[in-house]
Amino acid sequence: MFRFIARRLLETIPVLFIIVTATFFMVRFVPGGPFDSEKATTPEIRANLEAYYGLNLPLHRQYTNYLKAIVLHGDLGRSTKYASRTVNEIIADKLPASLQLGGLSLVIALVLGLTAGVVASVKRNTWVDYGASSFAMIGICVPTFVLGPLLVLVFAIHLGWFNASGWYGWQDRILPSLTLGIVYAAAIARLTRGGMLEVLNQDYIRTARAKGASEARIIFRHALRGGLLPVVSYLGPAIAGILTGSFVIETIFQIPGLGREFVNSAFNRDYTLVLGTVILYAVLIVALNLVVDIVQVWLNPKLKFE
Amino acid sequence: MFSPSSEKLPSAEVTTAQIERGVSPWIDAWHRLRRNHLAVFGGIVLIVLSLLCVAGPWFSPYGYEETNLNNTFSPPSGAHWLGTDQLGRDLLTRLMFGGRISLMVGLVATFVALAIGVVYGAISGYAGGKLDRLMMRIVDIIYALPFTIFVILLTVLFGRDIRLIFVAIGAVEWLTMARIVRGQIMSIKRMEFIEAARSLGLGTPRIIFRHMIPNILGPIIVYTTLTIPGVMLLEAFLGFLGLGVQPPMSSWGVLIKDGAERMEEYPWLLIFPGTLFSLTLFSLNFLGDGLRDALDVRAAKD
Fold first, then answer.
1. Are A201 and B261 within 8 A, CB to CB?
2. ipTM score of the complex?
3. Do B59 and B53 meet the contact criterion of CB atoms below 8 Å apart?
């Protein structure tokens, strides 16, 4: 297992390199530049700005300079939109809100989703199953941009329990986390139910029953291991997405997070900020998919670290 | 077991193909599916909805872009069965036109994601070793590339075109499917029936597509029923960014989004698109669950 992890970490280097390179050139080939929206730019000011950011250099020089700064200093460069700030500062400033929102949502999603999925599969085709499955279907059908405003309408405006938007006290965390959490809980519940149903029919579960294992032991020790396999595959990329922020939720609830910043940076042609957030996301994706592969081997003893 | 077609008496000369085939699982599954009332109901609803969206606009007295500023935000009435929006456009007509886009995106993008994801994931999981590692690192890379920039780049290169949305969405949605399929394939590849297939001398593609994929259809179908609403909503999100379908054209996702902004004053603008969207997804889901159960060979033998 140690060799497996070491090799995967080594593979991460070319993966990140390709992602950075591809993104670097992708953003440059999109027409428009970072200073197009500034109204009062004379050609002189523009030339100065471009010199300041090194945008007047040939493209391959910009690219090598950018790589050098990351590798040597971990420096993601200066934002072209927020002139006085570096990308490292912006990420440090915006990431905590997204992480908090994501972390809470993840807890809600896992607790609700796994419980609903397991219960539905064990009580298959009873009213418990129909109830849990309908809850999951509602979560899938109702998109965040409907669920969010709906929760605000009921709990903030009519009942007055929470603020409609903002990100100050702990109360402000509840509605956004619920909105994001329920959507993921629904997907997790569906995948868990499906995965468990596959497993509960198998011979080794019958063997466990024949040996007189208790129902709880059969579910948690034997069935869950195999039944969670599709959920685990799904969770890797889902967690990376949850933690780096949701554009829609952050917009609805006015949360100063990274998701909104990322989408805006793409429209502002803020080259360095786009690249910085992509790198962060890439590191998360690679790390989480590695964790998924380790968990899969742990869940299924027939697999080996290849 | 109940259908005459599944009876096969062992004959003296049994060929390899016969051992492999046995009972036709598809015919069996079709009989089981027909007995599942919820699934049949779901299928019928989907057919009716699709027909409504394709043929309905021909019978509508209104156009989807036809505004009437004297009759904005009209509640449901005899003239406008589902009411009108902020420009006095007939909601029913817009829903039928929007349904064409949404159902098409849901169908095409999901099919693209399904085809690429299943084949890619199956090959990666079955091959294992170096090839698997290479293929999965490619998936990691595509995951991380910025979707928004990719879509902007596409619209710049090829202009605004609805087919681009299919391509763009299909290009990202297959990734999770590939990872799920890979995980499932790896978990069954050391089982005895695969050994048996191999010892019959079958080729790798045949083992993968005839013997392994039918055995992991459950997770594939479940994730497909998650992908369809996913792509329909992603299309709405692209519209949100100004990259999806352009007004005055619309889609269910966009209509729902617009309705959500006025849900308190003019609730029908959210309720009708929302209901239609949910009805479609519920039907798909019943059909998907029915298919899953019908194709589950193990459950059928109990």
1. no
2. 0.82
3. no
Distance in angstroms (rounded) separating the CA atoms of residues A85 and A257: 16
Q: Residue B23 has what pLDDT?
A: 62
Nearest to B180 among A26, A145, A234 (CB): A234
What residues contact residue A125 under an 8 Å CB cut-off, 6+ apart? none
Report which of B172, B280, B270 is spatially closest to residue A140, judged by C-alpha positions.
Answer: B280
Q: How many separate helices (H) and strands (E) can be counted in chain B?
A: 13, 0
| Distance to chain A for B15, nearest Cα, Å | 29
Which tokens go with B114?
């399904």
Residue A60 burial by Cβ neighbours in a 10 Å radius (0-12, 13-18, 19+): exposed
CB burial of residue B224 (10 Å; 0-12, 13-18, 19+) = buried
For chain A, helix (H) and strand (E) counts, in that order, are: 14, 0
Q: If we measure between CA atoms, which residue out of B240, B23, B221 comes closest to residue B151?
A: B240
Residue B170 confidence class, pLDDT cut points 50, 70, 90: confident
- Burial-class residue A94 by CB neighbours within 10 Å (0-12, 13-18, 19+): buried
Model pLDDT for residues B219-266, shown as the tens digit of each residue: 898 889 888 888 888 887 787 777 777 777 888 888 888 888 887 788
Chain B interface mutation, best of A7, A196, A198, highest count of B Cβ atoms under 10 Å: A198
Under 8 Å between Cβ of B230 and B173: yes
Pairwise CA distance, residues A140 & B155, whole Å: 29
As a whole number of angstroms, the distance between CA A278 and CA A243 comes to 13
The answer to whether the Cβ–Cβ distance between B179 and A237 falls below 8 Å is yes
Q: Rounded CA gap, B124 and B118, in Å?
A: 10
Strand partners, B90: B84
Cβ distance of B260 and A149 shorter than 8 Å: yes
Average pLDDT over residues A137-145: 82
How far apart (Å, rounded) are the C-alpha atoms in residues B215 and A300?
17
